[in-house]
TrEMBL record:
Record-given protein name: Methionine synthase
InterPro entries: Met_Synth_C/arc, Met_Synthase_cat, UROD/MetE-like_sf
Source species of the chain: Novosphingobium organovorum
Entry's Gene Ontology BP terms: methylation
Keywords: Metal-binding, Methyltransferase, Transferase, Zinc
Amino acid sequence: MNTLLPSSTAGSLPKPSWLAEPEKLWSPWTMDGEDLAEAKRDALRIALLEQQAAGIDIVSDGEQTRQHFVTTFIEHLSGVDFERRETVTIRNRYEASVPSVVGTVARERPVFVEDARFLRQQTSAPIKWALPGPMTMIDTLYDAHYKSREKLAFEFAAILNQEARELEAAGVDIIQFDEPAFNVFFDEVNDWGIAALERAIEGLRCETAVHICYGYGIKANTDWKKTLGPQWRQYEQTFPRLQASNIAIISLECHNSYVPMDLIELIRGKKVMVGAIDVASNTIETPEEVAATLRKALEFVDADKLYPSTNCGMAPLSRRVARGKLNALGAGAQIVRRELAGA
Ligand SMILES: [Zn+2]
């Protein structure tokens, strides 16, 4: 990156109401067939324009073409039966009826590659594409076939690697893996979770990132956060091993959360996407608040490795609030950029 403090979002942006019911996860599409395909492309264009208008440097598709960051990817795989559902506890937090793995999992065809190519055609700015991480994928399924979380995670890692290589070939500059499960299953993360992630990025020449957060601002997550105490030290469990991994960028949650910022010191040397926007609140940050979070992060990250970002995706927010937060992120990054240039 040539720009100092290149800004980006964690990934998702709200969808227009003509495409899917707003402020809702797994919101059904309002149309189908060729109309839907064209509407998704239009929504992607708008998401891009809004990021550019806000001065966001590394742009994304705003996840306009997917219903959910994990489910949509899995829907494209064979070996998973969406009719055969079992109730499991996701991330030790909430019960959900989920599909079952019933045979060898495989990617029959590319999942997001056409969408990424379309985004690439629209802009010359650096683009980032989000995929679910292997551990977060297995945590949203019932496994009736492999009977091993580790085995299934490595199967998914191989599939993600196929997709990632094609995304890279389509012109994606940064491939990000979303691993909120890394904030829950610490022993597994260190035993095989990070190794599975490294399998997913094998042979890639583009940049790679892992996004580890405390989730969308939905009730199951905010209730869970209330049980975490005054200091959220979850990152402390996984950062030392991540610091030693091949992942180039770590995306984490900071603003308005109880994460002690000095934990960032544990990944010194990595590029850090610092969450300076709270996605669990409708209050729009001021650019000055964003700048204050970034200045504090600069105590633990070298300026050339600081990537201003959001705590998580903004899909569940209203478009007005998300737009306001995008603008604050762009403007806040600009304030600190100017300070660094003048120093
Ligand atoms: Zn997140």
